[in-house]
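Weekly structure sync, notes
Attendees: PL, DS, HV (note-taker this week)

Item 1: Acetohydroxy-acid isomeroreductase
DS walked through the input record. Source organism listed as Streptomyces violaceorubidus. Sequence as pasted into the shared doc:
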Amino acid sequence: MNSPSLDFETAVFDKEYVALGDRREAIVRGGRHLFDRLPAAFEGVRQIGVIGWGSQGPAQAQNLRDSLGDSVKVVVGLRSGSRSKGAAEAVGFREEDGTLGEMFDVIAASDMVLLLISDAAQAEHYREIFAALRPGTTLGLSHGFLLGHLGDVGETFPPGVDVVAVCPKGMGPSVRALYEQGATVNGAGINASFAVEQDVTGRATERALGWSVALGAPYTFQTTLESEYLSDLSGERAMLLAGVHGIVESLYRRYQSQGMTPDDAFRHSVETVTGPVSRIISKDGLLGLYHRLDGTDREVFAQAYSAAYPVSLELTAEIYDEVRSGNEIRSVVLAGHRLARFPMGKIDRAEMWKVGQRVRAERSEDREAPLDPFTAGVFCGVMMGQVDVLLEQGHPYSEIANESVIEAVDSLNPYMHARGIAHMVDNCSTTARLGARKWAPRFDYLLTQQSYPAVDDKEVDPAPFAAFEQHVIHGVLRTCAEMRPSVDIFVE
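Item 1 (cont.): predicted structure, written out as tokens:
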């Protein structure tokens, strides 16, 4: 992918530029003080249809309804017989007042349609969905999977509609919870990226920005739909989910083989990653984590980093190729046809994750998770491998930082700290769950078979760490930290 030339114009919101490394990117700051501009952003939109009630659907429907008030009607569309109907009714969407209806009826009646059903369902039903869209409608996506699928099957979006995306950098429950905190805490919310794929009406950019502001995003960054799905699908198959899963499983076994008890092995692997490592990176960046260490701990970090980085670079490059080629998208579509017969099993019954339940239950203020330097080095080495793959592929700095670092330490890892990595792997989107099951073992095996023996045999090439301290990502993360939401991610 060539580096996209990104800039946009808006007459409704205030665009500003931020310096990220050696580049400049345009952003829009959000905030509730901008809600009175939303009618202008959604000019010509009388009804927004929110289709689906998975992770993002409940949050986005409620946030939009609360932000827009009476200026635009927000209607939830569900398939006939959906088991989610009761949940939608419980938060105030009702057939009686026209705010809840059958999905295709809602699509046909809406001026802006936010398609938040699963990736597999989009791939299965896109022809019917496109047929229901009226000319001049704005089709909104929160993930670029459908673009990738259309390219794979040789089709395109309907030519007579806008196509935009707003992609919150957090799970739906957090999008909702932080929006509610935003009523009293300035700056609470989940940052988002936006993209304009087609602009038929001339209003696509304003509608996308209005959508993001209405969701409560403190900052909105620009990307392209292609760049979003390439980085997002690759990221969840690498650092964001499969990578962290493979890291901790490999480290848990390693530490036990070195004589730790199961509980201590869990603390030095999982608890270190989801606890102090993520908290420090969130506030101080990757370099701040390294500087938190002293003496021999820095040497241990550097060895672990240099051993893990090449494995991550190679494997993330393979993942990116698989996503870009369409192979990963096809695998998700094919799995959708198999799941009724072969449903995905859960991993949380394995011995390691039962130990984790006990360790989390025994947490106390006087027993903090350890900041293990070897674990920290492996984690950062894998993370930086993904950073460099996305850099090589020309992604915007803001997207690289969000998809490789910020979404991990500010959104997903805190959730895993509260509930467990196994819980996340067992309960995230179908697309992400499939990716974790496919790629986590690859991270586990390569770290176990190549990285750790290199450390033990003192055969680690120090070159990866030598490049670490001067890496451009550190300056990018310092700027992004200034745009960090003013509260920590909310975990119910």
